[in-house]
Fold each of these.
Amino acid sequence: MIRQFKSTPKIYILVVAAIIFSSCNPQGIRRSRMQGEETMAKPDSFLYYQPMALSDSFLDSLKIENDKEQALKVRLIPPPPPPAPKTKLVEGFRVQTFAGLDSINALYLVERLKDTVKDSIYFFKENNLYKIQFGDYLYRNDADLKVMDIRKYGINGAWVVARMINVPIVADSSGSIIPADTVASVKDAPFKIQVLVTSDLQKAKNLTDQLKNQFERQSYFITSGQLYKIFLGKFIERADAEKVLAEVKNAGYKDAWLVYKK
Amino acid sequence: MKTFKNLILLLLLLLFIACIPQNKSAQDAINIPVIKVLLAEINNADTLNFNGTYFLETEEARYEFGPSNSTIYIQVLKNGYKIYNEKRLFRFRKSDRVELVPADARATIQLNNGEYSGRFSLFSKDSLSLYFVNQIDIESYLQGVVPAGIFTTNIDYLEAIKAQAICARTYALKKMDERNQKPFHVFADVRDQVYGGVGKRTKLGDLAVLETQGSTLLYNNALANTFFHSSCGGVLEDASDVWQGPQLPYLKSQQDVIGKEFADGKSPYYRWIKERTVSQLDTMFNYTFGTTYLNKPVQDTMDIPLRMRVTERSPSGRVTRMIVNYGTDQHELKGYEIRRFLGWPGGSLLPSTLFKLSSSDTSIIIKGAGNGHGVGMCQYGAMYKAQKGLQYYHILQSYFPGTVLKRAY
């Protein structure tokens, strides 16, 4: 009994020492198990299992004999016709406020015009010059009035230029029959073509005769101060006047233009 | 009594010995291989921020950068490059190599919203750009790789994360062998493995790397090809059907099953449906082959035929070849081209080639399964197996049968 008691503390101490060693140094045990070994992933767990083959409707259907050709048709439809233009180009007048090389000043002037002018403003480059024009006036008189108008706002030095202008297209009335009582007499015709202005009376007379013969229309001149203005024809419709104007220009009278006066 | 004293002495001796392995384990850490990761190709200029102290070392000198001058700028020049900040300016020739060495292990560098530790090298790739390479021990590298590859937010997935860590380690070591003579071993993006650096580390990612430290997967005493993908759709693919290489016995087609269910059944990509409209298909043809009809003006209404047919499948059911016709054009698509062609928008990928086609009047319907190439470890499958209680070596064995685990260091 006494011998048993004496040996017990030794055993206890050894056991405690072993516990301390293993708890302080778990790597020692783990390392000895893993050191250099080739660990085949062993089926050492009860969870390890031999996977079974499962049937699945989707996976089972993936067979080449089930693959049919899938066909679609891509329908190409021609584009709708482009919308009719809202404006057309005719000969007329604009007010030009600037023509120069300085684009910065030009832009500044465009901004000023936007505040003062309600008509369309055009800013573009032509013949290496930046140009600012506004308005689309069929008659020179209207353009001249606008030149006077913008002077009130401090924009001086504007001038009238003749060029193609945009005018709204009105419903086409060609083919419609105009009642006889609404046909205006030639006397009331407001359009005429001013062909030339000269200070030489003899030249004015000669040209008047020449125009009469050449275009078979009435031609005359009027005195305006020291100048003689030579006119050709009288037209009720602007379109008719423009047609003759084109002929006059083709004949070499490049400065001819259309005059409207009621 | 004397015996008792001896026993006490013995006990103290044991306690002393128990402390020694700590030193031994620190010595082991020295043997962990260092991997070179290409973090960036600097084409014009870039900025680096230091957290902690770094030394800029050249062949001649060594300069300190720390909290007082924590930002440096790098700029590529015609005949070299320069590194500068408000206080210093260094000019280097094209042949010069600069090392950035941390003063201690906690020091990091920030680059393009990423934070990285370890040592860095800067050297010319060519006359137009610089390589910025991170040299880091492979275990620290894996701590930045694993969270970018698999979900590391749920403790239930720990065994799958460990399996992922082993796959990533094996891949990295294999690349280190293959690119031993190159300026760097791996890219930090999808060209190899996405490396997020210190900033992307997670607790579970770190734990998985630590608990599998040094473990790699071998086949016939060589590092295995540890491919992995997001979701297999229930069936794994044979590697040789995807990459036309030699047959690898551990990368065979098989169902991915646990118990009586498919392991990745919970994956959001387990089954999916995509629709491709006529307009989208026209864009795909234009993007891939330069063929388009929808943008061509026509004088009269006309119908252009558009046809698709699967002509070959691998034993797993994945589409390996298909023929597409559009108008008078006919093209055969193979493997990866199929995923690229049917991806939407142009440049993205169809989730997988495990699909079948059907059609409506105005579109092609693609019913498919899985996400990725389908070879090797299925990550959603691995996560579910981990949830079910399988250990990482069981998971690896199920995806790479016949391989063995071995500590590389």
Amino acid sequence: MLVIENLIKKYGDFTAVDNISLEIREGDIYGFVGPNGAGKTTTMRIAATLMEATSGTVLVDGIDVREDYLKVRGKIGYMPDFFGVYDNLKVDEYMDFYGSCYGLSRAEREKRTDELLELVNLRDKKDSYVDTLSRGMKQRLCLARSLIHNPELLILDEPASGMDPRARIEMKGILKTLKGMKKTILISSHILHELSELCTHIGIIERGKLVYSGEIQDIMRRITGRTILKIEVLSEREKALALFREQPLVEDIYGEENSFELSFSGSDEDMAELLRHLVLQGIPVKTFVKEEGSLEEVFMEVTREYELENGN
Amino acid sequence: MNLKMGIKRNPVITSEMKIKMRGWRTALAVAAYLAVLLFIGFLYYLTFIESSYSYRNTVNAFQEMGIQLYSMLAVLQFSLLILITPAQTAGSISGEREKQTLDLLLSTKISSFGIIFGKLISSMSYVLLLIITSIPLFSLIFLFGGVTPGDMIKLFLFYIITVFSVGSIGIFFSTVFKRTVTSTVITYIVIFFLGLISVILGIYMIQAQVRGTGHLTNPRIPFILYINPAVGLADILTAEQGGVSQFLGYNIGTQTGLDFWIINSIVMMTIAAGLLYAGVKKINPIHRKKKRKKQA
């Protein structure tokens, strides 16, 4: 759906994007991770036809963004990190305006507006003026706007930035719905935990260079190389500890009262077998949870590796 | 350029009109505009009546008053339009940038041409509303005689061309400068100096020719004057007395034999088209649109 090949963007002597190549397939949710000024927004703006690259190619559904940018714009929905709204325009008029900008008929615009306002929980705000909405509502409205023409690819630059925790949770819920609708999404965020829950793939960008790009599970495995199991028992602590020590797949044990954190190198089947052993031994298991590695940890590790390799 | 979104289905025009016409602001502005025209026109009428008391009831006196009132109102309306139009257009694109809505607009399927054209037409339509609502006021002059409907049509057509040209200067600077304040100030400065400098240079060029030989060696209007709509207006208002040739004090003609105001309009519209084209290029983020040729 989106192919970026050897993308370079320079501002004078400064290289904002340095030879980035990546591919996002249909249905992928690609998380773009990196510190401020790493080149995420520049890359997204080039893909959204809002900026020209110094060199390199960006293809959206096989179409070069420089070759037929109007056609590309019909295939993408773009939500910038900072945006404004028009005064004196109501929510449904706002949606209608952008629907017209994509050449939708009146009937299509009305239908899509109703559907999307429902999706972003703004149906009851249909007749409100957009400048009276809260920041979170405006962000959701902007997301709905980017979906008005039913695009195949969504480019979302920090869609939850500046939101309060409640608004973030609501936005995450909407994005999960979009994931369920099999939308292809390129999303950047500083909240790595949110991306790890949502994305199928991630790309880590540092000083304009893409230092990692691939499936999120691969990178978790590559960095941590193990699974963390969190187990809590009601009693029989010593018995449980003895059992864990007997297991060859358990590498490390951290225990505090009746809670344990095990570093486990087995498969999902091995985990089920361990749980079965605990139950058969008569140990009352309260919780048994497989903890995913944290994306923060992954990000720090990958960027540290990159800095070491490049002598910084 | 996507002409489909030119005027008929241009969402920028629809949306801007909706925003501008909502509420009482526009209605009040139109009322205030007409009140100014009416008040000054009435004062002029009273002054004329006072000063020409002895022959105020003759047909000639009424005709003379009609012509003078018409000229005064025409100049007044022209000045007001020159003042109002840049304020309407000089913030059209820079305002979108300031509100951070330009990227949202550019990421849609509406072309840069559609955006610029939509902005110009919606800004112009506001000024056109002022022009149209002043027609009944101007029509009162027919009661005095001396002015024909043809004169009035010519004048209003020239207003529209002037508004289009001045509006294009505003639009162009709003694409160049990020801030509306800068764009507006630069637009006013450029319009003022173009108006002033063109007249000074034009008169100087005629004088320079006369100074050498005592008469005009090449009796033609200097080209620099064709960029100035004020000279075009003078040509229209002094048509009965021979137009701009008389206004400049010499019996000189245009290069083509056409009336000065017609060539003036053509020149202004050409410049406006050039500025709009530059504006379209300026806001379009993708400059190199290449078409891949299919391999045979």
